[in-house]
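Notes to self, MFS transporter:
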Amino acid sequence: MSSSEATGGLRLGLRANLAQFTLLVAVNALVGGMLGQERTVLPLLADRAFGLTAYTAALTFIVAFGATKAATNYIAGTLCDRFGRKPVLVVGWLIGLPVPLLLIWAPSWGWVIAANVLLGLNQGLTWSTTVIMKIDLVGPRRRGLAMGLNEAAGYLAVAATALATGYLAARYGLRPEPFYLGIAFAALGLGLSTLAVRETRGHARLEAASHTARPDGRHDHLHAELSNRKVFTQTSFHEPALSAASQAGMVNNLNDGLAWGLFPVLFAAAGLSVARIGVLAALYPAVWGLGQLVTGALSDRTGRKPWITGGMLLQGAALALVAAGDTFGVWAAAVVLLGAGTAMVYPTLLAAIGDVAHPVWRARSVGVYRLWRDGGFAVGALAAGLLADAFGLRAAVWVVAALTAASGLLVAARMYETHPRVTSGTPG
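result:
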């Protein structure tokens, strides 16, 4: 899994950089834990502690989080190119330190919104940077595996923390005990990032020096030196694979924003206990996280496009099952399918971006993609809240199910296969 190329003691490949790669997987698990502390508790806190009965008002914390994270993702890619990866990672953890404390002490919903702005900054800087650093380290051959491991660590931590906070909330109450986990995650993340993580920008320069053009000439117009504006327009609109990935990422997180903000409320309205809601809130990211250990690596062999198309269609079907269901068993099956569909899509989209973007501007392209993807949190929360207020919870889920399926069909029509080893006929 390693490259024979070496410059100044640096080598590309998973095996050659295993210690740092493993450390970054652990750091990203802590990043995911920071997000997981909210998944079960905060939607219930909006209703029971702050009396927010309108769905749109209750979902403002996800809108604040998603909008901030999306913008920060874009900035993170540029900052990583300008100042290096490690400083951006450390600053992200410093910003995350106050989040659990604000959630514990919040006397009004405005404080919760402020905490989620800080959480968006934290997630945008830290998660984006760990993605970029892992892509730097592994080189082109095992990008799917690297992204699978990265996203699996993050979302398994989301699942474990959602389950743990559900248990703590059922036993001790919605505050403060569930948020003690966030304090520990932030302290550990900052310590490891400051003391143990090493800079990886040199690995990207090494790959750029040995970068070879795609045999079919498809990327010949994507030169090594592109302006920020050009990177934005290519990733967002012009380049077929990059733009198809960006819209699919946005719709994926649109339905995740729905799941985060409205699923606990829907399940509670059906009479499920807090503990059972916690199980459902954990089951979805658990399947999502575990599945990525398989799907990312398989996309290195079979290509990216089939996983992305199939995953979006499976998510649409799973959301339809949530909308139609009314028992714990049906909902458990639905969230398992939703997690499986998301696992098919999530690491594969990142790997596709890495396939197409030149190493010189790849960090910026990842930032643009993640701008669109995590903007889906804000769009999804706002749209789902408005639809739920106007037409009911289930109608909101049906609409998002249809949008998700349509996104999969758009990928099928617009995206080409991006993995160079698959398109060239070379075995994986």
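- The chain has one domain: 12-205+228-423.
- Confidence is low (pLDDT under 50) at residues 1-6.
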